[in-house]
Amino acid sequence: MIRAAPQGKGLPATQSRSLPSPAGLYQAAGTAPAGHIPPTPDAWYAVHRSVAEAQIHRDTHIGAEHLALAFSAMDTGLVPLILSALGTSAPKLRAAILRHYQQAS
Fold this sequence. Notes:
By secondary structure, this protein is mainly alpha-helical. The protein contains five helices and no strands.
């Protein structure tokens, strides 16, 4: 499980980029480890947005609800097409998730 850092407790962006990589993962600077599949920009967006959603709701974990909220914020890629095929929209999905989330709290 990915845990969200408490507000104000995360590393500044400049520090997180300068952290050394774990030993043995990379063969040379700039090359990915064997078998590494890089995420797409949409995948990175979904991960980062799910962290933001967890922080907005003051949660200390990232759950399926945060990923679903992140997906509902996407306006490119497959998500809008899938929602359209299901006869719904991102705002309707988001509202339903938030209703369920509030009832569970």
